Amino acid sequence: MMGEEIIKLLAVDLGASSGRVMLGTYAGGIVAVEEIRRFPNGPVEADGQLYWDVQKLFQEMKQGILAAVKSHGPLQSISVDTWGVDYGFLDAEGELLYSPHHYRDQRMEGIALALETALPPEEQFRLTGNQSSPINTVYQLFADLQANPELTQNAKQLLMMPDLFNYMFSGTAVAEQTIWSTSGLLTPDSSAPSGEVLRRLELPAELIPRLVPAGTIIGELRPGLQEELGSGPLKVIAGASHDTASAVASIPYGLGGSTGGEGSAAFISCGTWSLVGLETAEPVLSAGACTYGFTNESCFGGTNRLLKNITGLWLLQETQRGWAEAGEPLSHQEAAELAEGLDRSAARIAVLDPNDPLFSTPGDMPMRIESYCIRTGQPVPQTRAEIIRTILESLAQSYAGTIRELEALTGRPVSCIHMVGGGIQNKLLCQLTADATGKEIIAGPVEASAIGNVLVQLTALGAIEVPEARAVVARSCAPVRYQPALFTIHSDQGGQV
């Protein structure tokens, strides 16, 4: 143990719409995070395809490290978490072959049938625990190799996005298990590549680096970066590199009778995507889980996340983006106030399926909502308040349906739901979720991925033991509770986490 010293480290939390370099501080059994630098993120279009601007993102991360060193140094470690499924190729010299594709790129459309002929969706689920989806790494990799067979000669390693950034920092290439558990390329327990998947799709196993568990120290910051940033030998840690794995690692199970893994608490990680699920001791590979659309992903500490991916606040974010481009910007706070102040009894509100393919790509979201409502015979929301309320109520209804499916699959009644992530700042969404599910909502922390990232680093550094990580969160953060059908909230300590 490292005693009662103040430990400072950096968590880089990279989402699909923005990234942050966060300072994590641990002292006296309490963890705190502070935003050092925030920067936008989004796809770049070139020749009709969508990519991530990796070099720009890396420069932003370096600027964040530089600012943190100047204002808060010395620092002990750094770790990157990101969304799942996307990746980059390294060549024999360890250089990035080209910018990684964005998961909303459409190059998988033409190959899905061929892949699923060789490996049907139900077989993908049985062999990997992952639900089939064209955005999955396995589909993207199959598409890349079909379009560019020379990659089998030119590409020497495939690195998922957080592994890629950790490699750029350290020079060490590994495959961290929580991020690779989203790929559709591993066995259900995420312990090894699925030989059967690789064989059927003729994918080269050599592309997959050495698998390591979350919380592995993989090296130190490259000497050139140490000099450039004035940071000294920061340890580079492969943490719970999938942002949802980091978010779930921060859930303070035990509050209000919730017990997590073996108990009855579900979770919703709420952001651009919404991930609704619960922790289980082992992957759930039943026919029902496959039919309902659930997937299995690895957790920090070795448990399993049984969850469903739901298109989340992307619908609202894309709607707001369109309004802003039309010269009618609306802040998140203004959007929430409009929806909350709506006279629900006289409003035109529809129920959307957030995962309908109509909503999956960038575009005019209000027009797509109108098209969906016409197609499904529902009233078309006309005002901005009605559109926002339709989106939020639809998300809450989708969450509720998923919770009911989880209860049916596991035979375990869900007594409460932990909501974490930036989406919980929308208080109306939290209340609507309580109403739709009939469950108590325990909301917090907001900075779930960053806090989880920090906690995993602390275990790697030996500052805390794995079993006490969630107790640290419970001591450090004040949840906000929402009761079904009561449009009032209270905080355990008088404020939002």
TrEMBL record:
Q: Which SUPFAM superfamilies match?
A: Actin-like ATPase domain
Specify the domain of life of the species encoding this protein. Answer: Bacteria
Coiled-coil stretches are: none
Instruction: Extract the GO molecular function terms from the UniProt entry.
Output: ATP binding; glycerol kinase activity; rhamnulokinase activity
Domain Carbohydrate kinase FGGY C-terminal residue range list: 267-460
Pinpoint the Carbohydrate kinase FGGY N-terminal domain residues.
10-248
| An annotated GO BP | rhamnose catabolic process
Question: One of this protein's Pfam families, by short name?
Answer: FGGY_N
Task: Report keywords, A-Z.
Answer: ATP-binding, Disulfide bond, Kinase, Nucleotide-binding, Rhamnose metabolism, Transferase
Q: Which GO terms describe its cellular component?
A: cytosol
Q: Which family does it belong to?
A: Belongs to the FGGY kinase family.
Can you say what this protein is called?
A: Rhamnulokinase
